[in-house]
Structure to design on (114 residues):
């Protein structure tokens, strides 16, 4: 079965560039990746650019620099921007709502709640 890694599309190549830049072993189990490196994968590079060597399906290559938005940021953006109900449902399968234990969902700092 072929997946994103084997297909080598744009997003996978960007993720791979982040992994190479920050020395993240993409074959390591998640529990073996440091919290700092896992944070880069999930939440992005916070504006820090990495070099991406991109090859399209026709074999053409280009190199560019980009900030990586992170896996979670990418899914949130795609969920909000898609016009496809199917894609929204597929992404929603990966999401869950949780009430903040500190503010109880009020979205206020604990000082404001006091």
């Amino acid at each position: 079965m072929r997946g994103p890694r084997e297909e080598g599309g744009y997003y996978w190549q960007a993720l791979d560039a982040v992994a190479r830049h920050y020395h993240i072993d993409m074959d390591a189990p998640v529990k073996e990746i440091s919290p700092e490196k896992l944070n880069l994968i999930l939440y992005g590079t916070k504006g820090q650019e990495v070099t991406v060597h991109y090859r399209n399906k026709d074999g053409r290559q280009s190199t560019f620099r980009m900030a990586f938005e992170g896996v979670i940021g990418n899914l949130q953006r795609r969920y909000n921007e898609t016009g496809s109900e199917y894609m929204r449902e597929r992404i929603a399968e990966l999401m869950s709502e949780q009430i903040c234990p500190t503010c109880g969902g009020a979205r206020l700092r604990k000082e404001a709640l006091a």
Summary: The two ends are 54 Å apart (CA to CA). The longest helix spans residues 10-21. Helices lie at 4-7, 10-21, 35-43, 71-81, 85-92, 110-113.
